[in-house]
Design a protein that fits this description.
- It contains 1 helix and 63 strands.
- By secondary structure, it is mainly beta.
- Among the domains are: 135 residues, Sandwich (Jelly Rolls), CATH 2.60.120; 62 residues; 71 residues; 102 residues, no CATH class.
- The strands form 15 sheets. Strands 16-28-19-20-21-18-17 form a 7-stranded antiparallel sheet, with no helix packed on it. Strands 1, 5, 6, 58, 61 and 63 form a 6-stranded antiparallel sheet that branches.
- The protein is elongated.
């Protein structure tokens, strides 16, 4: 029997579904591996262990965002239920805002706007985080004032078909409705009667409130015409000379009188002109102003304690866009281009826009500026073309549905010319991608068709660190079980460059944040019998998780990364930490450079029980394993005999700069690397580029093979080979 060496050097898809085991010869299987735990694909298409994480501080935060309030200034903002912390690039606290207006930070959304950062709490309102000459504050965000003392806020008709009747046009009035529409939460809010504002002062009943007129209300007229039988209740009428406009509320054919609620030209029609409807007209002989009539032309504040606040927002082309209103889920509210605090709607190019989107009343969950405006709903994806015109106006606001797949509530992320989101089923990850050579077109592609086992009840998505110095960019799916699905891509977010790998740690990932040009993560770790939330940072120089990097000297032990938070000069900073005080009662690994020294116990106070005899820099933290398992080669194609079955006899791996690893073949595990015959044992083992080989004995069908990084240190896989008998 002949022997052949089959090598795999293409790992484009990384880990794929286990049911590809029998898909021998398929392109997906040929370019993937059976397992890629804690591995990443580099731009050169080789595999390397994921970076470790440096411990930055303990921080029980629910949400963390990066803000850039001025050129050259970057800060992290950590939102807690009771306070907000402004963080510097070392994780230290620049400012503590001790009082916050929300009670649950997990639902907050953020829109960074230079000096001001908008913060939305769906339960209580919208706020602004303001930076001013080094000082920070959180204040209420409000709409601009409009002429006549009105507020330039968006309004919406929540009770179609219901009419209200004000008792007078000015001053303190009573407002009555023909249906139970009022609640105690209406107190302090504003409604509009015929586009004029009324502020509600007190709640009387569900059909009655007391209020103050902000702007004089439209008048109602009793108009005497030549023939009132031509008019019908509910139809619109207009004065042919004055352009008076109104809505017919009552018709008295015996007296030839029509009661009209005015919608335009408050002075009313002139005697002698004709009052016209869609079907006919009749000459006016008299008019009399009467008490305000009951009218269905009224609306309420779109955002208020009554109807809630938006659950998502974005900034696009100088405009602020709110979506996902609790009582109007298919409405999109876009501010005027002149001010993000002005939501006065109109037909001019710079006016605000308040529109309902979609034919099937979808819930618009997210809005993303991706060159074009992308709206993701629970019932499909919509596009508002702004790429060609470059301007978003009331006339160009036309939402076109380009895919039926819906999204869920997890905020999407922008990746190159793609918008990545969790589908409405809560499990699949999809991307809306702009593609094409001559004509660009948006389409949606499922990214997890071959990786669905790696997405487990996702709770968050983390987009790429835009300013990262690393060539490799990553998208992270934070799973409900505390693991990550790491999506790597290099040149672009196309099908040929996207791969998935599972990442885990000794604990549970709560969130990943692109911040300060790198990836930071919030991790829950079990420490000394309790769960502690920690802020850590992925770093290529870290070979351990929750690591501290120390240097021993005769002067002091100085912390390079991570440490204890203290206050110096009124500012919290991180100072030296020579011992893993954040990991009491744990077993930690210690490294000297890239060499693993061993495992050591930490006592209840966070001090090492036994100090290793190491001079200079050392790294202390938690070990994590990494593993690559290839698909077994079980058939080969022969030019003479066609497809022939094979049997693996040897497993091979080409490693670069790796000190040691384990190789597993059908349950037999062997430690590889380390010192070789003739090496100087007084110095660390050398980093070498080498091919390691082990025999594959035992099971013929679907043999199990893997190369494992079980000891901390560098680990790069150039190629994986299998020697087979044909």
């Amino acid at each position: 029997m002949a022997k052949r060496a089959i090598w795999q050097r293409d790992f484009s898809f990384m880990e794929t579904r286990e049911d590809l085991l029998e898909a021998e010869g398929s392109e997906i299987r040929d370019r993937s591996v059976r397992s890629a735990r804690n591995m990443r694909r580099l731009a050169t298409n080789v595999l390397a262990a994921r970076p470790g994480m440096f411990f930055m501080r303990g921080l029980a935060a629910d949400k963390i965002f990066e803000v850039q309030p001025a050129d050259g200034l970057k800060f992290g903002v950590a939102f807690l239920d009771t306070q907000a912390l402004i963080l510097n690039e070392s994780g230290g606290t620049v400012k503590t805002i001790a009082s916050v207006p929300w009670s649950d930070a997990s639902a907050l959304w953020v829109v960074p706007l230079r000096e001001e950062t908008l913060i939305g709490d769906p339960a209580s309102g919208i706020y602004k985080l303001t930076y001013d000459a080094g000082d920070w504050s959180i204040d209420d965000w409000s709409f601009e004032s409009a002429p006549g003392g009105e507020v330039a806020q968006p309004y919406w008709v929540f009770n179609k078909g219901t009419s209200i009747t004000p008792s007078a046009r000015t001053g303190s009035i009573t407002v009555s409705s023909d249906a139970p529409v009022f609640t105690p939460a209406h107190v302090g809010t504003r409604i509009r009667y015929g586009q004029r504002e009324i502020e509600i002062d007190s709640f009387v009943t569900s059909q009655s409130v007391t209020a103050t007129v902000v702007s004089k209300l439209p008048p109602s007229y009793r108009i005497t015409v030549a023939d009132a039988s031509q008019f019908r209740i509910g139809e619109a009428v207009v004065g042919q000379d004055t352009n008076f406009q109104g809505l017919v509320v009552a018709v008295n054919t015996g007296a030839n009188q029509v009661d009209v609620f005015t919608t335009a030209f408050f002075e009313g029609p002139d005697t002698g002109e004709k009052l016209a409807s869609d079907d006919s007209s009749s000459e006016i002989s008299a008019k009399t102003e009467i008490s305000p009539l009951a009218s269905t032309i009224w609306d309420e504040a779109l955002m208020s304690p009554v109807h809630g606040w938006p659950r998502s927002a974005a900034a696009v082309s100088g405009r602020l866009i709110f979506v996902d209103f609790p009582d109007a889920p298919s409405v999109v509210a876009v501010s005027a281009s002149s001010s993000i605090q002005n939501f006065d709607v109109g037909a001019n190019d710079d006016d605000a826009i308040v529109r309902q989107v979609g034919d099937d009343a979808p819930r618009i969950l997210h809005v993303i500026n991706a060159g074009d405006l992308i709206l993701l709903s629970d019932r499909g994806c919509y596009l508002i073309n702004t790429r060609d015109s470059g301007v978003l106006t009331p006339s160009t606001f036309n939402a076109i549905k380009f895919d039926k797949r819906g999204a869920n509530e997890i905020p999407p992320v922008l990746v190159d010319d793609a918008v990545v989101f969790v589908e409405s089923n809560g499990q699949s990850i999809a991307a809306a991608i702009l593609s094409g050579n001559v004509y660009l077109k948006w389409s949606v592609r499922n990214l997890t068709l071959f990786h669905n086992h790696l997405v487990i009840s996702p709770t968050a998505l983390c987009g790429p660190a835009v300013n990262s110095p690393n060539v490799e960019k990553y998208l992270f799916v934070v799973n409900g079980d505390g693991t990550l699905a790491a999506v790597s891509f290099s040149t672009g977010f196309g099908e040929e460059t996207v791969s998935f790998a599972p990442w885990d740690t000794l604990g549970a990932f709560h969130d990943v944040i692109p911040m300060f040009g790198s990836y930071w993560c919030v991790v829950d770790r079990d420490v000394a019998g309790s769960t502690v939330r920690m802020l850590e940072r992925f770093d290529n120089d870290a070979f351990l998780d929750s690591a501290i990097d120390t240097t021993e000297s005769s002067e002091a032990q100085v912390l390079l990364i991570g440490g204890e938070v203290v206050t110096i000069g009124g500012q919290e900073i991180i100072i030296s930490q020579a011992a893993p005080t954040h990991l009491p009662s744990s077993t930690v690994s210690i490294m000297s450079g890239i060499v693993h020294v061993g495992e050591f116990e930490v006592d209840a106070s966070g001090q090492l029980v036994e100090e290793p005899d190491i001079e200079g820099q050392r790294q202390i933290g938690l070990n994590f394993e990494a593993e690559v398992a290839p698909w077994p080669v079980e058939v080969v194609e022969s030019p003479y005999a066609g497809v022939r079955p094979t049997r693996a006899t040897r497993f091979m791996v080409s490693l670069q700069g790796t000190l040691t690893c384990q190789m597993r073949a059908n349950g037999y595990t062997r430690q590889m690397g380390g010192y070789s015959f003739g090496d100087d044992l007084s110095v660390p083992p050398p980093q070498i580029d080498q091919i390691f080989r082990v025999m594959v004995a035992g099971r013929r069908d679907h043999p199990d093979m893997a190369v494992i990084k079980n000891i901390p240190g560098p680990f790069t896989v150039l190629a994986i080979g299998q020697e087979v008998k044909v």
